Amino acid sequence: MHEYPLAIYFAAFVLLIWYSGDFSLMLFTFLTFLSGLYAHKFFSLLGFERYSFEEYPYVYVVPMPFKSAFAIGNAVVLSKRLVEEVDEDVLRAIIYHELGHIKFRDFTTAFLLVFVYSVIATYSKAKIVLLAYMLLFVWIYWHMEARADLYALRKSANIEKALEQFNLKWRLAFLRGDTNTQQQVMWVMLAILFFAGFYLGTLFIKGQ
After folding, report:
1. Measured between alpha carbons, how far apart are the two ends of the chain, in Å?
2. Less Cβ crowding at N or C end of the chain, within 10 Å?
């Protein structure tokens, strides 16, 4: 229900390039992106079970120990625990949410964000620029999630029930047009504080 690979991919890349600044990481990013485009073939070769879904053939069930779903390249991945423990209508809504990410090419968007970040990090010594760019990623990431929810809603999937079950209140409030955005503002502020703290902590460790 979360786009964990995008967030983890970005965070790992930030850590790598923050401490190394190696230009070769851009090549690593590009190769990772290409591998993601062929994720459906990779999952098929590994023999993962396909989940029968009426509108999309590349939905796979993977034996992960937690309830989660994500889109990578053009494949939708469901954890086995998720398939076994959630209602069918909730699972349908989750799949449509992930298909929203595929339809709007969010994997490509994340690649472009990370690739541009790598260029800035390689050639810019001003870490405040990197901090600003990370905040931009948070902002775009939020919109990608909200847009995928709207796509599921347009497909008449019970996305509200899915968001309630996974306690994703900020996305639920957005979907319902709730004018009380206090919780959304709180999460944005926490993200800003986290990245600002990471930036200041790095400067402290490096003695700059």
Report:
1. 40
2. C
- Using alpha carbons, select from 82, 55, 88, 86 the residue that is nearest to residue 70: 82
**What region, left, alpha or beta, does residue 199 occupy, with left being phi > 0 and alpha being psi -120 to 50 degrees?**
alpha
The whole-angstrom separation of Cα 77 and Cα 50 is: 9
The 3-state secondary structure of the chain, one letter per residue: CCCHHHHHHHHHHHHHHHHHCCCHHHHHHHHHHHHHHCHHHHHHHCCCEECCCCCCCCEEEECCCCCCEEEECCEEEEEHHHHHHCCHHHHHHHHHHHHHHHHCCHHHHHHHHHHHHHHHHHHCCCHHHHHHHHHHHHHHHHHHHHHHHHHHHHCCCCHHHHHHHCCCHHHHHHHCCCCCCHHHHHHHHHHHHHHHHHHHHHHHHHCC
pLDDT digits (tens, 9 = 90+) for 67-118: 889 998 889 999 999 999 999 999 999 999 999 999 998 888 887 887 777 7
Distance of CA 69 to the CA centre of its chain: 10
- Mean of the pLDDT values across residues 21-48? 75
